[in-house]
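Posting for a labmate who doesn't have an account.
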Amino acid sequence: MIDRRLGEGWFLAGDIGGTNTRLGLFTKHDDRPKLMRFSSFLNREYENFPELLKKFLKKKSPKIESACIGAAGPVLGGRAEVTQLPWILDSEQISRSARIPAVELVNDLVATGEGLAWLLPEQLETIQRGASSPPKGNAVLVAPGTGLGVALMIRCGTELRPFPSEAGHVDFAPRTHREVALLNFLRRRFGRVSVERVVSGPGLVAIYEFLRQTGSPSELQEDLPCLKAADPAAAISEAALAGRCALCRSALHLFVELLGAVVGNLALTNLALGGVFLGGGIPPKILPALRHRRFLAGFLEKGRFRQLLTTIPVKVILEENTAILGAAVRAMRVD
């Protein structure tokens, strides 16, 4: 096990998502990680993680004492299968090939959760302030991006400790007739429909495609060729926020409502009185939509527990490298 004492020397931290991998080399400075080198890679350009890591380390690197890699998928016994990639990671294999004495693999949302405590106030955007004196309870971290990551933040004394979860793969539960129609649309494509099929980048694209079949004539008249873009989800959200496409705007509105509903469910699941944190690649890019009443309407519409949910702070993580920071903190906790 890696304990909580911060070591000396150089440390490798990584964040492997469904689309990108970010790697950083750190040293310790004033009891916090100091980034010395950073690179981001497109996963589709590499057959496996060791190939990518070799490229990062081919520049003359100092001796690395330990590493922590966050991966978007379940981590069991030092091995991880990345949900959105055909990659299998093994901590011992990485240790041998990269000659790093100690390598830890964790879920990427655990790494992000570790980084939360090191963020500055300006690196968080408040969507709901919550109670004036929020209780020191649990929290929850929800990160829609290429997939949907979730970590449960459990209160342990004065600290919030992140625990891995695969809550992004629970069943999608529609609330309205339109959402039932969306479920049936996705069921014909996938069979079983998880929350991640809806609340993610591909989920936004699926909502857009659903509305192209069921939308009003006025929406379809303004339909842009977003599906032909290199990143259709980004094209849809950008066109929606710029007011260039009525169909894109409707898709983003429904996406935000569904995200609010999912986040509200998770807040109840973990009794997250200590706060809800939205991470991942999508929330910082759609802040105007998240500030709109649609998100909080979905979050708060929980019947008898509406009032309880109004007391919970909801914040968006603006720092895209929070997971790298958290992984660096874990890498610095040496035996």
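Reply:
Got it, the structure tokens are right above this. The two ends are 8 Å apart (CA to CA).
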